[in-house]
Amino acid sequence: MARWDGPLNRIDDYRWEIPKNYKPGMRVPGLIYASEEMLESIREEQAAEQVVNVAFLPGIVGHSLAMPDIHWGYGFPIGGVAATRVEDGVVSPGGVGYDINCGVRLLRTNLSESEVRPKMEKLLLELFHDIPSGLGSTGKVKVGKKELDEILTGGARWAVKRGFGTQEDLEVSEEGGCLKGADPDKVSSKAKERGLPQSGTLGSGNHFLEVQVVGEIYEPATARGMGIEEAGQVLFLVHTGSRGLGHQVCGDYVSILREAMQRYDIDVPDRELACAPVKSAEGRDYLAAMACAANYAWANRQCITHWARECFMKVFSKSPRQIGLEMVYDVAHNIAKIESYEVEGKKLSLCVHRKGATRAFPPGHLGIPARYKEIGQPVLIPGDMGRYSFVAVGAPGAIKDSFGSVCHGAGRTMSRHAARKGVRDADVAREMAARGILVMAASRGGLAEEASEAYKDVAGVVEICHRAGLCRKVAKTYPIGVVKG
After folding, report:
1. Residue 408 bears catalytic tag
2. Alpha-carbon distance 381 to 329, whole Å?
3. Residue 187: phi, psi to the nearest 5?
4. Which one of the listed residues 63, 207, 365, 408 is annotated catalytic?
5. Which residues are CB-contacts of 93 (< 8 A; sequence separation ≥ 6)?
6. Cross-strand pairs, 9
7. What is the pLDDT of residues 345-401, one digit of tens each?
8. How far apart are CA 355 and CA 336, in angstroms?
9. Cα–Cα distance measured from residue 380 to residue 105, given in angstroms and rounded to the nearest whole number
């Protein structure tokens, strides 16, 4: 991929602006959160040009934003945030991505590292066996077409109703695990066919289950508010999304909206930025279908949570209360939502696209659970599987500067194809074992493409967001066991 040599004007130590006059047709400037050291790697691909392209979208306000984990994606960069006016702006499937509501869910436990390490292999075997993973994997949840529609409208609520979790799980999920406005009639038959057998599956790619240990705690009181008490405590992280159903929904609507652009006389510099007015029939249909896929993902993570709890109970021969495997939070990082923000002194209803970006509402915000009103919304930022991850909370700067958004992970420095060159799964597994991390993988080549070397150091990414006032670091965690999809 060609190097990008456009302008990046320094605003402060953490923000770099691409001026609006860089290219005729940009409606707003671009803005990338990064350290000066990160700029060289950002310039090595065309993700910054994608920030520019997004700035052409009708109705976009503020800046076309990118978080420090920015890397090249379909149409929008991954790590991108764009807010468009509902009144006269557009919605773009590329601003959400193919894995609609890919997201992360964190659970805490009463277990310590010293209790879990001796049984780690047994625990991973149980998780690997009970939670199907890998490309095209099919799940244990057998539903017909009518019940699939109930998943698409009910999300995690459907799963809890079926016995896969508790009301408390829903209370600490973004949107209560169910996005309003879902209409299964707007989801194609092909998408539903792909979704029928895959409920409760991990999938492949960068999806994983991770047994973690709390390393450092930066804000003890805030951590205790999430049930994170001390170093050495074991946590459990789930990372997956809407599987084949979400992928098909995105593909279907990219085609539909690409045709619609001609009818609405919309011209954008990249055909992958297919879009339509938010209020148009096509735009409304996409949002209704996207909500279905988002709900499918929340149901998926809820089912996985249920089976993970069963695995822990079986391996440790303890009751649910003794294990204390309780939800901390579940948050999406590929989604578009209608939210209100003040822009240039006016309160506006906006369609906020977060593609590889996490919602990060500060203390007191009406959109977060009562349990977290005083500390802020938990923000879950996984790193690569060989190093560490972070738990943070939203900060006021996110509302002021980034439409309530922050980074979602480490961000790739290497494509999956490049990462597989010259590296074998066995080498990666051996290296991780040397670090005290046991790993099991379903997909051949899956470990190599997810090796630490293929990612930025997430510590640097999170530090930028922390110092820029978008979030506050709460805890750093380390993996000790990974099931890789």
Report:
1. yes
2. 12
3. -105, 130
4. 408
5. 250, 253, 254, 257, 274, 275, 286, 290
6. 17
7. 999 999 999 999 999 999 999 999 999 999 999 999 999 988 999 999 999 999 999
8. 8
9. 8
